[in-house]
Amino acid sequence: MTGPMNEPTAPEPESNPYVGPRAFLPGEPLFGRDREARELLALWLAERVVLLHSPSGAGKTSLIQALLLAALKGEEIESLPVIRVSAEAPPRDCPEVRSANRYVLGALLSMDGARPAERQIPIAELAALSLDAYLTRRAGEERFKGKPMALVFDQFEEILHLDPTDVAAKEELFDQVGAALRNRDRWALFSMREDYVGALEPYVRRLPTRLRTAFRLDLLGETAARLAIVEPARRRGVEFDPAAATALVDDLRTVWVQRPDGTREQQLGPHIEPVQLQVVCHRLWSRLPPGAKVIRPEKSTAASGDVDVALAGYYADSVTAIAAKDGVAERVIREWTESQLITEQRTRGQVLFAPEKSQGLENAAIQGLVDAHLVREDRRRGFTWYELAHDRLIIPVLTDNAAWTAANLHDLQRQAGLWARQGRPAGLLMVGPGLRDAETWAGAHGAELLPVESEFLAASRAARDQWGKELESRRNAAELERQQRENRRFRRMLAVSSALAVLALGGLTATLLSWRAEEKTRQELASKDQQLVSKDQQLVSKDQQLDHKDEQLVKIYKKDLLPTRVREEARSAAERVRPQITYSFPGGVAGDPAGSEEAPILVQYASLKPDSSLIKLLNSRGFKVKPIHGKHDAPNCIWYGAGIGQDDVKQLALTLLEAGFKVQRITPFKESRGKHLRVMTIATDPDFLAEASYTVESLQTLKLPRSADPKATPAPPD
To answer: Alpha-carbon distance 456 to 452, whole Å?
Structure first.
């Protein structure tokens, strides 16, 4: 079959036949899942209670909403609305709601909130019902008479990770579900990510069958993926060239495999992620020229590539369009999406709709995100909640926000954001030249500062003033001690001079008799002077140490050139760039897998004082480091020989970003240095701030030349 197993009347089609990152809705045609829907339905009909599990992004919700529930009606089984135990109760001052089990109430709200308002049960009364009592009450409705009742618990893993400590409430939910399912006219399907299935073990004994019957939904195979690609376009009158469809399928299932000898090669894997396919096809369709009737191979392959990049690009394009349309700053939309819809644990959060603005963002902009299928709108009992459309969007949103922040915000703004996210520690405040530059920039762009950035600037100024006072106090104390030492020395010298004068006025006999005593006195005084000189030297050394410590403090404040998030993204990219990508220069000289059989790449490290932690990090990445004493004329630069592959250059650059150093130049050696030279040279200078640094994103897309021609050398990023 080429179409879905059921042919419901679809809603008014959108301009794009591919849904992008969101799940398919009831009535939307879902291609490539007919077999799975039939097998799951047959298993459910036979067993009554079934666990549906799959990898994240395989399309469980789409399968349920677009195919399974509609097919269930053909079997004379009525289903209630899809249940989410995470559904939040409206924020009302109701003691019954506050004391109710949050998971049971969430399940009841999912089912009852989809009914017409005049038929909904009051929330106080609903909170007092058990799941069995609620289902018994609903069974009296006309549509359920004489028919089994089906319950579908979607994203059931939420019961496990919402609150790991709330064991008693979880057990109560499972007890109530088990009691409700003892009625054999009630059917249940539990849908969840497979990596949480093991965590159900402490609870399943409370359910009938203990969820022994399970169905695994795998990712798309080659044939199913081809249907999901070709059929939506065909329904809009656009045909995929067979070669284009094959190229897109192969591109989406290509993986890197490492051989026993350590070399890597690309191979075609067995599976394709549905979310990735929908995002890539959505972007491909949106870039077709008007009136196009055929999709050629060059269009399909250009649209695929790295899916995280595609998702991030889709998010970036949508935010830019919404900002231009609604007159909302792009920065505000990005910060709202990251801070309100993504939790610190990198899970999806929820925002309650409010008049005009919801948690600080204008509702018109939020609606734009909903229309772009980046945000899902959930209406329950007259209240509207917003959340990201899919878990798969979390990392691309964070990655693209970090890249956009690095490219568009001043150091003051980036540092202020990091300071706020880390709990406002004093160690992240600006001092020294960085603060002076921030003050100059803020004076010219005061209208662009957010309240938290103004607070950060004020806190940095206060810290600088306090630090300056402490430094001045230490210096004043040291100067006072020096003066006291000089005064004591002068008094001792005056006393010695007076004693000598008295001796000179005495007779010769007294002088001879006292000569030995005088000599002893002189020796004692000389010894005391030596002790005082030694003490003076110690105090001078202490002063020098204090001055050195002051310089180190300034360097600590200056050296934090890259935000922590950028370093984390650099580390993540550095860990995956080598096993995922093999680059080569034109002609096949560099980047050849055979190059991995040669000696390790030598990295010459030019610096007056090499950073030992950087050397250790480079060694752990497989480079052989050779420090070269001396400061290079071009700071924060990487030179590479013609025998070095692009993946190795990017690995080195990402490692430098991970260590906290900027990368402001990447250029090949002159040809005279050797055609196959497997050597790279780096120079680092944290004080050199005249130019911007490459970002993680710009490094991943950078194409490096083989020639040393200055015109072929990549320019530094803007």
So the answer is: 6
**Helix H or strand E encompassing 193:** strand 186-193
pLDDT at 87: 72
Q: Tell whether 540 and 660 lie within a shared domain.
A: no
Q: Which residues of the chain have pLDDT under 70?
A: 1-14, 88-96, 298-307, 379-382, 447-448, 499-514, 547, 549-563, 577-599, 631-633, 671-676, 687-691, 706-718
Give me the domain span that covers residue 581.
565-712
Residue 463, domain member (yes or no): yes
pLDDT attached to residue 513? 64
Same domain, yes or no: 672 and 616: yes
Q: Is residue 393 in some structural domain?
A: yes
Do 40 and 174 belong together in one domain? yes
Cβ-based neighbour number of residue 609 at 10 Å = 9
Angle in degrees, CA 460, 461, 466, rounded to 5: 95
Task: Assign residue 399 the CATH number of its domain.
Answer: 1.10.10
Phi, psi of 717 (to 5 degrees): -65, 155
Number of CB atoms found within 10 A of residue 352's CB: 13
Res 598: pLDDT: 53
Residue at 111 is within a domain: yes
Q: So what's the pLDDT on residue 247?
A: 87
Q: What is the pLDDT of residue 1?
A: 35
Backbone angles phi, psi at 552, to 5 degrees: -65, -40
Give the relative orientation of helices 394-408 and 330-341 as an angle to the nearest 10 degrees: 140
Place of tokens 């600088």: 464
C-alpha 252/C-alpha 277 separation (Å) is: 7
Q: What is the pLDDT of residue 689?
A: 59
Find out whether 37 and 68 touch, Cβ atoms under 8 Å.
Answer: yes
Per-position b or e across 534-559, b if 16+ CB within 10 A of its CB? eeeeeeeeebeeeeeeeeeeeeebbe
Is 699 buried (19+), middle (13-18) or exposed (0-12) by CB count in 10 A?
buried
CA distance to 591, 607, 644, per residue, from 585 (Å)? 7, 29, 9
- Helix, strand, or coil here: 367? helix
How many contiguous H segments (helices) and E segments (strands) does the chain have?
Answer: 26, 19
**What pLDDT score was predicted for residue 690?**
57
**205: its two tokens:** 């004994």
Query: Distance between CA atoms of 215 and 201, rounded to whole angstroms?
Result: 17
How much is the CA Rg of the chain, to the nearest whole Å?
36
The reported pTM is: 0.53
